[in-house]
Write a structure and sequence with these properties.
Helices cover about 60% and strands about 10% of the residues. It has about 550 residues and is an alpha+beta fold. The strands form 5 sheets. Strands 3, 4, 5, 6 and 8 form a 5-stranded antiparallel beta sheet that branches. Helix 1 crosses helix 10 and helix 18 packs antiparallel against helix 19.
């Protein structure tokens, strides 16, 4: 094990770092490598990965970054997809490009499928299933899906995790964490962008997605939330053929919600489907705080009797009680057209920086909200309002919780499907009864009593532990055990540059000393001779020359003459 980028890494991580840097250089992001001060791999990357100028000339930086993420593989594709939901972090043109990242990759071989199933269940495919298709019906970066039949006769789909994907993802997370530490070190002025926290969030998300049995538990949880609702259907999980690396689900025969012609041919009611889908999503958000994070048309099937079935539960959003309260207040204020209340909510819901120009933010928010409140409800897009507001607030470097970003994107998708099915679909109208009910429930006596009871319990716990806490502080003071840590921010770059300057001056003095010393030795006739000249003089000149060349190369590579 060695240290690189501030963390302990192995040889596999080092190879991956070289590959990442090479790809970044190849797509024209040398400046990013220099900003992060990891130029030790720059020459090698430039030599082996650089693409021709003509190949990249017609591409924007956002397009080049998307192509770079695709080339770097599954982990970076997933990272780009996560970033596409974060308008508070990256510019809009990058959001658009990252939303194009596709998770479709070539499948792995059937022999590897056999091996994976044998490792997970200690049996052969012929023993585990009555039939099993060799060709996958879908393949993505994390897993691929096969159709099969259980020995009991049920038709199923079997989702199998890719061989080696766990080690690959863990290596990439280790490297990304090192790069995040470097980014925090070299970009301290951007306080709203917390790269280490972002990588931790991403690591948590992708590790959950790698654990396929967790997706099975998610399906059962969300199914229990809608127990007894005949308008929704959830695939059954077959736990006897499910493990951390394999998920076996009921095969759902339905029509994709985007296949309008097939829906009409089957005599289904598209307007009713739009309402049912929207209501299901609103209930997930406002009632359960646990919602489908990727409800795009490919994940929604329609069954007979206009029953809606959601598929692929790898990406889920979660809202705690305080987040649900904020979202309820926001929607209620939007529906009641109360811009002052919306502005107040937004100003105090994010993390405010010390340099925030609150007067300018309030003015921009007021103009934005008033413009939207003048629109008829039928023309108002809740998802668009939320997304545009987050984008506006992000310009002031106010941090919002990641699940709000996922929620705004999912809302846009749900609204888009609703209007695809029904041109007259009104999301505000669908939300109104749920929002009003949630707002009324918050003002009920039972809810108020519960909140007051919780507050009293917190104050009681504080009062009970306060004497012990004070005693502990006094004991530490008496024993001189109190430590105060002071951190100088923004000086690291100056100190590094000062060290470089000092090293170059020292090298220059050594070179000059060698030249002068060698010249003095050259005037003597003592010591070993070569071609009539002192050997030590030749040696001194040689060392001085090599050091001079090395110093010049370092200066040229830094770009500062």
């Amino acid at each position: 094990m060695s240290s690189l980028l501030g963390i302990k890494v192995n040889s596999r991580s080092l190879r991956r770092v070289r590959q990442i840097i090479g790809v970044m250089i190849g797509y024209g992001f040398e400046s990013l490598i220099e900003y992060l001060h990891i130029t030790q791999f720059k020459a090698r990357g430039a030599r082996f990965f650089r693409r021709s100028e003509g190949e990249l000339a017609h591409l924007s930086p956002a397009e080049r970054m998307r192509l770079a993420l695709e080339e770097l593989g599954p982990t970076f594709i997933k990272l780009g997809q996560l970033l596409s939901t974060r308008p508070d972090i990256i510019p809009k043109n990058y959001l658009v490009e990252f939303s194009k990242l596709q998770d479709q990759v070539p499948g792995f071989s059937f022999s590897q499928v056999r091996t994976r199933l044998r490792e997970e269940f200690e049996g052969e495919i012929e023993e585990l299933f009555a039939s099993f298709t060799e060709e996958p019906i879908a393949a993505a970066s994390i897993a691929q899906v096969h159709a099969a039949t259980l020995n009991s006769g049920e038709e199923v789909v079997v989702k199998i995790r890719r061989p080696g994907i766990v080690d690959e993802v863990e290596t990439d997370i280790e490297v990304l964490m090192g790069l995040a530490f470097l980014a925090e070190r070299h970009f301290p002025e951007n306080s709203s962008f917390n790269p280490v926290a972002l990588v931790k969030e991403f690591a948590r998300s992708i590790r959950r997605e790698l654990e396929l049995s967790r997706e099975g538990r998610t399906i059962e949880r969300i199914s229990a939330n809608f127990a007894g609702d005949p308008t929704l259907r959830f695939p059954r999980v077959y736990w006897e053929r499910t493990s951390s690396g394999v998920l076996t689900l009921e095969f759902i025969h339905g029509i994709k919600v985007s296949d309008l012609a097939a829906l009409d041919q089957a005599g289904l009611d598209k307007k009713l489907i739009a309402r049912r889908g929207a209501e299901a999503f609103i209930r997930q958000v406002l009632e359960h705080g646990f919602f489908h994070g990727d409800p795009h048309p490919g994940n929604v099937f329609i069954l007979p009797e206009n029953v809606v079935c959601l598929l692929d539960y790898g990406m889920m959003g979660r809202l705690d009680s305080s987040s649900r309260e904020f979202f309820t207040d926001f929607l209620f204020s939007l529906i009641s057209r109360n811009p002052d209340r919306i502005i107040s909510l937004l100003l105090y819901s994010g993390d405010l920086t010390d340099t925030l120009d609150s007067r300018a933010l309030r003015r921009d928010l007021s103009d934005f909200i008033n413009d939207f409140c003048e629109l008829p409800f039928a023309e108002m897009s809740v998802g668009r309002v939320l997304g545009d507001l987050i984008e506006l607030i992000a310009a002031y470097r106010i941090y919002f919780r990641p699940d709000f970003m996922m929620l705004s994107k999912a809302l846009v998708t749900v609204e888009g499907m609703g209007r695809m099915l029904d041109p007259d679909f009104d999301m505000v109208k669908q939300m109104r009864p749920f929002v009003e009910k949630a707002a009324a429930d918050r003002l009920s006596m039972s809810t108020i009593a519960q909140e007051v009871g919780g507050s009293l319990q917190s104050y009681y716990n504080l009062a009970r532990t306060f004497p012990d806490d004070v005693k502990e502080i006094l004991n530490r003071l008496n024993r001189n055990k109190v430590k105060i840590d002071l951190e100088h921010r923004g000086l690291e770059h100056f100190i590094r540059e000062l060290d470089k300057t000092g090293n170059r001056l020292s090298s220059s003095l050594i070179i000059a000393s060698l030249v002068v010393g060698s010249s003095l030795i050259m005037q003597t006739e003592k010591g070993l001779q070569l071609l009539g000249f002192p050997v030590f003089a030749f040696l001194g000149y040689t060392i001085a020359g090599l050091m001079g060349v090395w110093l010049l190369i370092g200066i040229f590579r830094s770009g500062r003459l």
